[in-house]
């Protein structure tokens, strides 16, 4: 059993703590949050210790692995402290919003022989994983195009927008990672366009956008198109298409049931889409943790690395540069 601490008892920390508690590979020892009430109420709900000082917990001998679900600007510090203490780390995305800080962290991790995994959970969604397996099995021949639609059900609150680092680094970052993973090749050119159509005043206040499209090309000519909106009135819209020389793979939205309703006004009416990421990617968060613990337990490499986080952040920065210059940006 891998003795695990979860740092952060907020939205994502609660997801990870429940998944660790349910895992057969790990034991949830402690949840940590400087906001004592948050740590205590989560710990009571799940049945583990609560603590308020992450560095004290990282130093404990009875902790083997640390899951970092704290605000983004704390990730690098906590990750490096945990690695220094010899603890395996699963760190939430993004590594940081500042690529220079990420590069310095990668440099410090270079000679460390401790597993550090980045939490790009969507790779572990069963449908996305099946897509990647079908590509690897040669079912659609050579990949030519990847199309990713990712739309949130509604604008986040103002405080979130302010701290997010902007839509490309906060939201599209998942899609940049998915694009690299499905293309199987690094994008070399990025062209992006961005608009303020959902909450123009709010996003303009933070020099941000709410509606974006990105087109990318790899050195061999593979293409990817990503489109994001902060608000789809019909719910959390998550679809992907991979088109290849011998066919296509299509990953549609998930719904709570397969029921379809028919009446005199409408036919084929489905349940609403699963709303929002906690529901849609519940399986993915659990599978991600199992992959992490599996790698830690077996000594095999972790499936997603901080370098993957760095590359996705770099693509986000290129997209923003493309919006600002109106030009194709060389990656
Ligand atoms: N993979 C995903 O789909 C996904 C989804 C949501 C959030 N995230 C990422 O997870 C991170 C946290 O986001 P959230 O939405 O859970 O935020 P949140 O604000 O809901 O929770 C963060 C918690 O961390 C606590 N905290 C602050 N500093 C801490 C420290 N030094 N040690 C321990 N706890 C500390 C806060 O008190 C808070 O309770 C962000 O980096 C975000 O980008 C990823």
TrEMBL record:
MF terms from GO for this chain are: nucleotide binding; oxidoreductase activity
TM stretches of this protein: none
Q: Which Gene3D superfamilies match?
A: Dihydrodipicolinate Reductase, domain 2, NAD(P)-binding Rossmann-like Domain
Known InterPro entries for this protein?
Gfo/Idh/MocA-like_OxRdtase_N, GFO_IDH_MocA-like_dom, Myo_inos_IolG, NAD(P)-bd_dom_sf
Q: What is this protein called?
A: Inositol 2-dehydrogenase
Could you confirm whether the keyword Transport appears in this record?
no
Q: Which organism is it from?
A: Halomonas salipaludis
Q: Which UniProt keywords apply?
A: Oxidoreductase
State the similarity comment: Belongs to the Gfo/Idh/MocA family.
Q: Which domain of life is it from?
A: Bacteria
Annotated ranges, domain Gfo/Idh/MocA-like oxidoreductase N-terminal:
2-119
Q: What PANTHER family does UniProt report for this protein, alphabetically?
A: BINDING ROSSMANN FOLD OXIDOREDUCTASE, PUTATIVE (AFU_ORTHOLOGUE AFUA_2G10240)-RELATED, NAD(P)-BINDING ROSSMANN-FOLD SUPERFAMILY PROTEIN-RELATED
Pfam families according to UniProt: GFO_IDH_MocA, GFO_IDH_MocA_C3
Q: Where is each GFO/IDH/MocA-like oxidoreductase domain found?
A: 130-249
């Amino acid at each position: 059993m891998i003795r695990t601490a979860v740092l952060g008892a907020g939205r994502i920390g609660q997801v990870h703590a429940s998944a660790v508690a349910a895992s057969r590979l790990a034991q949830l020892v402690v949840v940590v949050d400087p906001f004592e009430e948050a740590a205590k109420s989560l710990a009571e709900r799940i049945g583990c210790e609560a603590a308020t000082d992450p560095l004290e917990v990282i130093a404990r001998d009875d902790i083997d692995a640390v899951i970092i679900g704290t605000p983004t600007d704390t990730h690098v510090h906590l990750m490096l402290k945990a690695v220094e203490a010899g603890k395996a780390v699963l760190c939430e995305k993004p590594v940081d919003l500042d690529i220079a800080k990420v590069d310095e962290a990668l440099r410090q991790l270079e000679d460390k022989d401790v597993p550090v995994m980045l939490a790009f959970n969507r790779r572990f969604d069963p449908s996305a994983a099946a897509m990647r397996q079908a590509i690897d099995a040669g079912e659609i021949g050579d990949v030519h195009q990847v199309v990713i639609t990712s739309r949130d059900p509604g604008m986040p609150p103002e405080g979130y927008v302010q701290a997010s680092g902007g839509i490309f680094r906060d939201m599209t970052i998942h899609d940049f990672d998915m694009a690299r993973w499905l293309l199987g090749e690094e994008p070399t050119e990025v062209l992006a366009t961005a608009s303020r159509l959902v909450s123009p005043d709010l996003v303009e206040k933070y020099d941000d956008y709410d509606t974006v499209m990105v087109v990318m090309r790899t050195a061999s000519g593979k293409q990817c198109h990503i489109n994001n909106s902060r608000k789809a009135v019909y719910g959390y819209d998550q679809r992907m298409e991979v088109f290849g020389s011998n066919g296509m793979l299509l990953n549609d939205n998930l719904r709570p049931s397969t029921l379809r309703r028919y009446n005199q006004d409408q036919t084929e009416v489905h349940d609403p889409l699963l709303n929002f990421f906690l529901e849609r990617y519940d399986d993915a968060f659990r599978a991600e943790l199992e992959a992490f613990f599996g790698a830690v337990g077996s000594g095999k490499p972790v499936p997603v690395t901080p370098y993957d986080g760095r590359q996705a952040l770099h693509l986000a920065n290129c997209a923003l540069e493309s919006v600002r210059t109106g030009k194709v940006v060389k990656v």
